[in-house]
Structures
1.
Amino acid sequence: MPKKVNLNRVPIPKQEPAARKKNFSEVALGYGEEEAIEEASRCLQCPKPTCKDGCPVNVDIPEFIEAVRDRNMVEAVRILKGKNSLPGICGRVCPQETQCEERCALAKKGAPVAIGRLERYVADWERAHPELAAKQEVDYVAGGRKVAVVGSGPAGLTCAADLVKMGHEVTIFEALHVAGGVLMYGIPEFRLPKQIVQGEVDYVKSLGVEIKLDHVIGKIATADELLESGYDAVFLAPGAGAPMFLSIPGENLNNVYSANEFLTRTNLMKAYLFPRWDTPVKRGRRVAVFGGGNVAMDASRCALRLGAEEVYVIYRRSKVEMPARLEERENAEEEGVIFRLLTNPKSFMGDEQGRVRAVECYEMELGEPDDSGRRRPIRKPGTEHSIEIDTAIVALGTRPNPIIPSTTEGLELTRWGTIRADEATGRTSRDRIWCGGDMATGAATVISAMGAGKRAAADIDAYLREKR
Amino acid sequence: MYRVLAREDLTPEIHLFRVEAPGVARKAQAGQFVIVRSDEKGERIPLTIADWDEKEGSVTVVFMEVGATTRKLSCVNAGEAILDFVGPLGRPTEIEKFGTVACVAGGFAIATIVPIARAMREAGNRVVSIMGFRTRDLVFWEDRLGSVSDELIVSTDDGSYKRKGLVTEPLKELLQNTRIDRVIAIGPTVMMKFCSLTTKPFHVKTIVSLNPIMVDGTGMCGCCRVSVGEETKFACVDGPDFDGHEVDWDLLMSRQRAYLEEEKEASAFWEAACSGAKNHA
Ligand SMILES: Cc1cc2nc3c(=O)[nH]c(=O)nc-3n(C[C@H](O)[C@H](O)[C@H](O)COP(=O)(O)OP(=O)(O)OC[C@H]3O[C@@H](n4cnc5c(N)ncnc54)[C@H](O)[C@@H]3O)c2cc1C
Ligand code: FES
């Protein structure tokens, strides 16, 4: 019987903007079982599915969706986790609209199957039914080798999980006091609950991966010392964690934060629970966030939830050039974030106690496209104006932290300071050292970091088998 | 978890912990620091490494109770554990044969200057140390610093013990009377500032160890930014040692006060929780 095409994407229930901007609970509430099955039934089960090509870790998308449709959740979990160790995370934060869903046969009709929401549903179902979900089988092969993974973000976790499944002994070294990388310190609770991340980290540990927290590689031991101390290979996945600033006067005034600091205080150190948790963060009333990416959206929405009356996102180009996901921009707008587009800061002004009190800005207009293909913003003369603020958050992006490159001899870098690594294998210029994730590509996405972790795991395994 | 092997109360408010951390002990060098978090809800704070013992696998830190976090930390007894102890972080102090080195320390920083003075002497320098305290009752480690120095000057602000006055006075005399090739000044920010102002006219390079507020301590957040020679630096990775003549002291002091209000709120909140636990041996 030919299938009738259903173009009604099942919407995902969300907290109302007026309520959610006052709490840190998750915004999107997720499908219930009937909603998931209805959405899964829209999948055409294409004989030659293209959605899979859009997934950096090649999840067997039609197969797991078919299992959901048939109400066989145990099977859906098994299929999904066969390729993706962190589905609860990916289902929430992957930009599906430019990946799997963009390639869905129904995308041309404007209603791709909501693959991300289904992925999230399956992962959440497993969390709710730990006793029913099938245990992943790990093929422990005799004679596995020892691998050190540096960093426990998505790249490190994925690489470690895959290697342990291939029979190797894996230790992750993590600088912070919790595992998860940006998933823990950057992405806010209301978009990615920390319990979900913790659950997926625990899953990776349950496979047999050891995680050593509080270990800054380059300080407590260098990559070379790891190799000397008995590890056969090292996978570097320390992310691109060093914040960039605007380099304008007044930037070191109090209450001017990098997005990393603001988000780390808020999410990792739970400053929104201060003073029950010890770390404070300024609860600004008038907050300006500089930048137009996802990080700027996260920072502005956190500021609202901390009680700000007015939050501005100040961005030097126009809306169409904004790198933030459409969904995140809409969420921010619904919650009342004010966009000051085509505006650029010139300097910060402080009060007598050294706190920021205003930012002087000028207007911009768009000229010819630049190297990035986006139209270059040009300063409009005579448009200086100042905006009164009590907190500023700079979300201009990050660059690689030099701690590892500067302590590992012979590691070739690119001109952006990232570690040069082969895209297909993660191999670096150094024997027995691989690299992947944001440290190799510059700030990118969770799933691309996971893809790099997967490819490196395969290559490390092949290398170690050959050496045996 | 990192066990506190021994605890010593150097003064009622200055405490020494010898902490079991073999990995850190193996790599520690004079001038570096660790990030400490006492418990699950605790703040991450930097503490300078005061000593280490590779054989025992221990690292010693000394801290003064100033706010809620250090007060909470002071409730930890020997045998108990600290949740996180990360290091060794920052760049080590530059140790070389300079000639004569003056090591100046105030208050709790006496403990952290000892390994520096020791290393300076081992590198072949003549070491003159100056230690300053508020009053007689707070004097500690006179013998220890003395044992790694060729000459030791002790002063108290109120004159209740040895020389009366601030450490800057004997420092100035020293500079007037002898050839000093390098000064290391560690202690409260104002003290480091005035030591730097004192040495400036003599053109003697003066190294200070800055202690801005930090979060991660690895260059990830920028909370620790300081201005040195008109350039923004991250104290946790570019420092903590800097040239005292180049530091923007007013900016540093202003940034150290960024959370004064919150500090009061937190102290009030924890006062009750800690008061019962403070009857340690
Ligand atoms: C606020 C924010 C929101 C984002 N939102 C999204 C989103 O919605 N969707 C999306 O796909 N992507 C998003 N991203 C990007 C995504 O999070 C990153 O691309 C991804 O996390 C990179 O993974 P990674 O494993 O390379 O590094 P990271 O996640 O950065 O993890 C690196 C880990 O290594 C540790 N480390 C660093 N140095 C050392 C060292 N010397 N020794 C030991 N450990 C070390 C770090 O502490 C960290 O835990 C966001 C990023 C931010 C900052
Ligand atoms: S403390 Fe975060 S960068 Fe220095």
2.
Amino acid sequence: MTIADPVLQGLIDSLNAAYGLCLDDGRLEDWPEFFVEDCLYQVIARENVDNGLPAAVMYCDSKGMLVDRVVALRHANVFPEHFSRHLISRAVVTGSEGNTVTAEASYAVLQTRNDGETRIYNAGKYIDRLLVKDGAARLVSRTCVYDTHRIATLLATPI
Amino acid sequence: MNTQVRVEAQRSIPTAIDYKVYHDPEIFAAEQSNVFKGRTWCYLGLEAEIPNAGDFRTSHVGETPVVLVRGQDSKIFAWVNRCAHKGATVCRSLRGNQADGAFVCVYHQWAYDSEGTLVGVPFRRGMKGVGGYDKDFDPANHSLEKLRVESYKGMVFGTFSSEIEPLEDFLGPVMRKYIDRVFHRPIKVLGYSRQYMAGNWKLYSENSRDSYHGALLHLFYPTFGIYRQSQDSAGELTEQGFHNVFTVSKPKGDIDYTSFGDEANREMQGATKLQDERLLQFRPEIDDDVGLHIQSLFPNVVLQQIQNTLATRQIVTLGPDKTELVWTYFGYADDDEETTRHRLRNLNLVGPSGLISMEDGEAVELCQQGTIGAEGKFNFIEMGGDDVREYYAPMGMDENAVRGFWKGYLELMSDALSASTAEVPA
Ligand code: FES
Ligand SMILES: [Fe+2]
């Protein structure tokens, strides 16, 4: 096993930590800023990925679509009031070419609704392609492959 | 002094249903026998999910686990996933291929063929003359419980009833016409999602038939200033009342559907503009103007086309307040890569994260929570009248199909639904 460049490792882990906190703190409007303009974000069941099936519950292939999701969440969608909490593992860098890096990390999103109970809402892994430029990493694509293929009620807040 | 007297309350009727139907374990048990194992055809899956000999997928009829298998001769079979020996689950995967066509229970290795017939029992004669089954043990009497299976246009249904009419008659000509519409050419499966609701299956069944809530609960279109009022809608029911289809089409020939986002935004100043309109783009691919087709087939499936999304939603009843909705998304077999990507983009609208549909899961749970302890109290289903009509067209502002659902349901349940007793002051 090769040890990833510690600076690169730090950039990616920092991005993931900031990403999780951004969503958990409810700063949804900042969330699209983790992505480049021409990006892909999808949330897809592992049972689909394992069977070569492409259907995702969220599929946004532009930053504009991420913004639309956020506006809809704020003004249109109705869902149980909740907090989310992301627990994200250290990233494993799986490859790099020029300033494009691929990496994966495990995540668990806990959810606490108004009854006060905290439940494991969605567990899975991020499969990422990142652009590393000017000392910062941004997401070119993030695929959230979830193990928890039984979604409780609905999935509103991004993973 | 206030004396309380117990009286027989009114019975549920299609316009007023006793809230206990969503909670009572006895009613739930009666539904399993009268509805799901009764005189109905239950949706089990799509032929396209099991294209090859030996392909299988697990499914459900109500709460009963069932396996759908394609046999060696390409015929499709379904049997209850319960070993005839001691009741163990035989098939333990969600889906797969059993190349030799044999399903072996892991517990004592009883083996069944794809039809569900028992074909092998280890140590049937015992060992060295000791043990084993009696001479008159006949494997033919120990097969898996088999369902009658019939398909229509690639949708596979099963029934436990030996008396029920053929599937085509159960669906009737109107429902078949709309199924034909979606399955006008071969399909391919794009994937699944599973949505678990802490609510009763009938709340979801009402929801999928309720055209009244569309513009009120789901605020995505108005939020982005997308004006839909000029469209035509229609609801059609079958005679039993419990199957229905609701469609929305654009008016003949004036609006360019591909740009309706733009036009609507001009019409409704002040609304937020959609950043990426590809999300909503509609490419008509069936020879009509229908952009939304939601078809509820009693008792356990919804077939939909919303924009370019195609899906079945199978209702699995896991308990009085536990319902799983299995979404099977599909496209057409001849879709190119770009068309598939377009469908994936449109899929943002539907499913558990659907921008115009996620609220349904919440509505089901709210009604479940709100009706706890409300036995002997009744809901009110009189939007658009108190009757059940086979055709209804006033912009979806009615509950005709919800009344139709209850009409058919109450008929099947008949005596299994006793009236609640309520306490009233003497
Ligand atoms: S329970 Fe299946 S073989 Fe014994
Ligand atoms: Fe809805």
3.
Amino acid sequence: MSDLPRGVERRSFDGKERLATRGMPVYGEPTDGEWRLWDAGRSKLGAMIEHAMPVGLAGGESVLYLGAASGTTVSHVADFSGPTYAVEFAPRPTRDLLSVAEDRPNLFPLLKDARKPQTYAHVVESELDVIVQDVATRGQATVANRNAQFLSADGRLVAAIKARSEDVTAEPQDVFDRVVDELTAEYEIVETRSLAPFHDDHLGVVAVKR
Amino acid sequence: MTQQGWFEGVSPDDSDSTIDRIRDGDSDAPDHWPKRAVEAGFSADEETYYEQLRSVTIEATRQAVKTREQADDSQLVHAVRAMDDCDRTANELAERTAEWAGTLFDDVDPRLEAVRSLAEKTPQTPAEEQVLSLASQVDSLATEAESLRSFIEQRAPATAPNLDAMAGPVLAARLIALAGGLEQLAKKPSGTVQVLGAEDALFAHLAGRASSPKHGIIFTHEYVRGTPRENRGSAARALAGKLSIAARIDHYSGELKPEIHEELDERIETIRARTAGGDK
Ligand SMILES: C[S@@+](CC[C@H](N)C(=O)[O-])C[C@H]1O[C@@H](n2cnc3c(N)ncnc32)[C@H](O)[C@@H]1O
């Protein structure tokens, strides 16, 4: 079992040991003093950590988060990481993401399309430690490949791949095989794993840049 | 190949320019921006750089969200105008079709729905073929109008949550269309909102040919139409007042504010109570 990042702890909520980070509450999650529950059922990265995948987060890393939505997961990431760039392209959830950013000194929100990294490469710095990706849209491998340029030589991709976003009719396993295969253009796969029971039909992928 | 940070060539004190650079700038590749900003004299040190980056990304993103949502309001405007065109054309064509069909079939009902269902008949003569083909055009136009309506119903809550809740998606979209956009609607005094869509009547009034109109398109709202005639003016004024507040909240904050809806409900109840028991 890999160690939790510094700044993430297992704490007891309702008698169960659950992940938690320290920071301003965001979405009405339960808290225990300064700690707030990080629900793996609501966060694919949380599920990957629960499954002890080697996500390459020890605490303090620089992170590019693709598909930040209203900031649920990225708020926890920013609680234990260094500079955290959050890219989201839908305006509505980005409004909520803004209030998450207002409470965190190291979170930089960007309303940008993750398929077009040149529109934010003038803002997001190079040599980042980790890309977390949860875009749930067609072309998930392409998004990851195009953003590889932001990673340092041994930087990691930590992606949640949603089968139904690529093809609703195909067998999830076939979709996953295709996506993983496409990722090898830019990455070397470290581990893949289903995110069940937390998230159905999602594959967790950890990869390092080639 | 351009590879320039957002801070290059702008002064840290010029927030308009730095915000524009975050929003519209680009680069073919990333670089060590914190280090380069310090070297360029933009930031005293990297810690300062991140503070600057944070406030400018928050502000730039806030503005970008607003612009994008306003672009969404123009989608609503086009959709509601297209829906009205489809409805109007479908109705006109239905009349023409029914008139012709009446010479070929018994019991032709001139209403739109009846004409649409004519399209299912099987033609026996060349003339019937022409008429039934027209009927199927009517049917397609009416279907198109329905699909535009559901598009509006789907988009309005995100674009204008308070107007949507107060007026319903279609009337909300019509008000935005009549004003020329959500921002324009938000900037109109409530007296103008009250008579939007009654431009002809207002013009006649200003030319001295008629009394001043008490309501425009908002007459279609239950709160006006369903209020007894002698108090309709007050109901229209109350509704228009709250609608313009709703438009302002939608434009400036975008958050649903339940209070204004409750206040309107109470206000209308009071107005109607004045006539309760009296003639209706
Ligand atoms: C499943 S949600 C992310 C949930 C979030 N990661 C969390 O756990 O809090 C996927 C998000 O990706 C966004 N998205 C999809 N395609 C995108 C793109 N090309 N660029 C940026 N964001 C995108 C969607 O708007 C949506 O908000």
4.
Amino acid sequence: MGTQVKDVIIKPDAPTTLLLDKHADYIAAYGSKKDDYEYTLSEYLRMSGIYWGLTVMDLMGQLGRMNRDEIIEFIKSCQHECGGISASIGHDPHLLYTLSAVQILTLYDCVNVIDVDKVVEYVRALQQEDGSFAGDKWGEIDTRFSFCAVATLALLGRLDAINVDKAVEFVLSCMNFDGGFGCRPGSESHAGQIYCCTGFLSVTGQLHQVNADLLGWWLCERQLPSGGLNGRPEKLPDVCYSWWVLASLKIIGRIHWIDKMKLRMFILACQDEETGGFADRPGDMVDPFHTLFGVAGLSLLGDEQIKAVNPVFCMPEDVLQRIGLQPELLS
Amino acid sequence: MHGRVKVKSTAQQEEEKRKEREKKLKVYISLRDACFNKRKDGVFDEEALQLTQQLLSSNPDFATLWNYRREILLHLEKEREKEEVQKVYEAELAFLESCLKVNPKSYGSWHHRGWVSSRLPQPDWNRELGLCDRCLSLDDRNFHCWDYRRMVVKASGVSVDQELQFTDRLIGSNFSNYSSWHYRSTLLPLLHPSQPPSPCHQPPVASPTNSPQTHSHRVCEEQLLKEYELVQNAFFTDPNDQSAWFYYRWLLGRAEREEMISCVYVSREGERVAVAFSRPVHAPSVGLILVLDGQPQQVEWKSSHPRLRHSPVWICELPPGSVSDINNEHNLTVHWSEKHTHRDCALYTGRTESWCRDSATDQELFRSELSVEKTSVLQSELQSCTQLLELEPQNKWCLLTIILLMRALDPLGYERETLAHFNTLKEVDSMRSSYYNDLCSKFMIENTILKMEYAEVRVFSLSDKNLTSLCHLDQLLLVTHINLSSNRLLRLPPQFAMLQCVEVLEAEDNTIESLEGLYHLPSLQEVSLRNNQITKLADLEPLASCPKLTRLDLRGNPITETENVEAEIVKLLPSVTDLLL
Ligand SMILES: [Zn+2]
């Protein structure tokens, strides 16, 4: 009788120190193998991939090693007539990649290299009557896209372009019995979605609408004996979920409800000592996505070798300070 | 990028793999370019469907290719006869099913299936429900499939009742299924709302658009009792299955609080009004009107603290001289026009202050963490859980539920047992001890508020109780003396500024580093912060906004070690005449 707790076991020889130099080398090399099969397969999310790589490099103080001019030219070539930005050349524009592009240009302090007015118009036109956002013209609705929309506009200082009240109403209609949020009204709570929705409510200054005690309880129950966090009950721990849960807890002012030391040990154990980079779980293959969320997670946990990260935008705090953006956090 | 185990391989294996990947890359690139070129040339034919199919079957996240397929399908829709169109779309569904078999968690495939279903001339919703059943039987937590099922249910008009029976079946075969319990939580309030919504008895159609905001989201009592039984079966079968416990806590939850103005306070000397609301609001934008002796007043509402854009407590200054003559009686009304509610408050002759409110006890604020009144049912629930705890003395879920039941039944009567259970909880689940500390603090604060209300005093005293955080501070609007000494507080948060009447604050022997909340407290005279962690002069800055502060005890704080500190403090806080360092 009884459910087995799904979890991983951290081996005694797993890394316990932060291998920053290796991670920087891993990311710097990642973009240089452009004729690699795996790399080509991930073309459909390239813009986000670049954002993950640049952000983690900036957090580690290594942004200078990336090819700024090439990246900026690439982004310019990915803006479409409609104003939206695609993952790569030949792909269609989407809110996901529009946000990534605006984040990258904000890191590089040069949003004006693209047509900002057109980006704003693209985002505005994707808002639906019920306040929700479609990801692109094909109409998929998801609270992730609500976050992408307001985060993009906030970075551009243009939140006033949309109907914020309606947008808030929709996100709140996705709140569940456990205080969490799902993709659409009625969808089950999920840590990634909770991150998007609490982030959305932070950007729009509506965090008082969250049941922080209830949601915080659900979130801190994501921590497993290994120290890692999962994204839903009865799932395995994962570095990226560790970030989403941790950032959500930070946003609602409850980050102290988890065992920070144990989470730190889990994240460190997901490093690959040979290649650099972080995997989803100890012993798996690394990738830039988990490398960013591993490093950003350690930053939220207070690691002083890494720049402070903003839990809402997943960007360095100093960058947001420079543009005067201070999203709300509960205390 | 998920769950790919790293395997060690020899140099030769590596070389073979590299060659193989090179080959695959060539094929992939030529296919991709063929698709892109055809699209660029405006070709929307069967061959393009073939090409995109080859790529999508192994890489369903390539969103642009789904877009291209949709363009092709729309084109064929225009060109072909209706029957042909049906066939084309049926073929698309078959292709999608094969994609979903390989990759059941692809956003792109599921969205495309929804799109195809909505365009199908003759949709077959039963087939779609069947697909969901098969998919959920392989993975009963696949949220993409659950969402698709909800879309199908909505489009085809499946009744809420049928869907509830569906969750009965799933839960019956496996209690440990968070997704099913979640689904129940959205269905039950539709089927058995806590208040009958309308006299019409049409069976409602599942529409998951009902949110906690628009709906009471509560369940009627009769159904609630049945649910208790179901959940109890679940957690007696597997006491470590968190799904059932989460659901149970929701069932135990209380109904949403009525939206109202809970308190209006007026000070004659301060020529000031403070208003408390049942939830945080942004007063300037909710249509707040203050009427003094029949005259609407032009006032500026200020949040209790500038960091709280939404606050349950708002303050305004009255026009100079408007209430200052102690021989005059005044009548105040605050209207919350957005909610069509108001509260009156009379300031009688000879009185320096006045208030009108519903107290925490009036509103049953803390007791009714439960919406059910039937004490006997809760009592028997408590008995069952206590029995379970005897079998499973380390079970944290059971311990926490017992605490919640005790609070619902008699928060003061069970105080000692509650504290004991909290101590056990922190031992068996030490990872979450900070959560339990904060929750216990909350319950202790609630109990102290209840005791204060019963005693009809304005003194809040809660020392030596291991408090780690403060909450419900809006309930302390009228408190004049507060004692928080010998706890484990780290700070006095911005919300502390809601204590608009506080005169004396004792907070000795904590580890307080921040005094952010000691801000614009008009009556604050004495503050004792002996043995805390105040380190810098800047930490004291908020106190400069408290005009009546005369006594400040900072003995035993790191700040006292600073050079020249006395002169600096005197400069910062000129009203303080009694400074203890
Ligand atoms: Zn992951």
